[in-house]
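Subject: Sanity check before I submit

Could someone independently write out the structure tokens for this chain? I want to compare against mine line by line before I put it in a report. The sequence has 171 residues.
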Amino acid sequence: MEVTLNSTSPLEQIRTVVRVAGGRALVGAGTVLDESAAAAAIMAGAEFLLAPNVNEGVIRTAHRYGKPVLPGAMTPTEIAVAVEAGADIVKVFPAATLGPRYFKEVKNPLDHVVLMATGGISAENAREFLQAGADLIGVGGKLVDRQLLAADRLDEITRRAAELVRTVRPG
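---
Independent answer below. Compare away.
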């Protein structure tokens, strides 16, 4: 589960989710833009960091504390720079805009890189991205949106999550 640092009271949210999850979920921080934000998120309990870009300071900070880091990249050059900087996984964003075929094309020369498709991933397209070469998927607004949370519609979020799992793991 990711708490984005550009949300309201993100460090408090991380602390709360870590406490409520009680070890049943990994909680991380997203939209980590610099070293100080990375350190603050880790001190709040984040177990992993996601960034929208490649920032070597964020990568160094994550590794200093033994946490995996997933910087964002779009082009093959950005993906290679992320890997060279020490990215554990490269978050390719915006995946839906690029399309599944993009992953097939990029994985041809960069088959050693672990790529996570994020941005516009849903139960309807997740399997296609995985089949095309994405190693992992990240699902955000198509699974949990602000309106469902505000309406306390956890049943709908649960239904969407189950549908997503059925889609990527049929049988």
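---
OP: Matches mine. For the report I'm noting this point. The CA atoms of residues 21 and 153 lie 18 Å apart.
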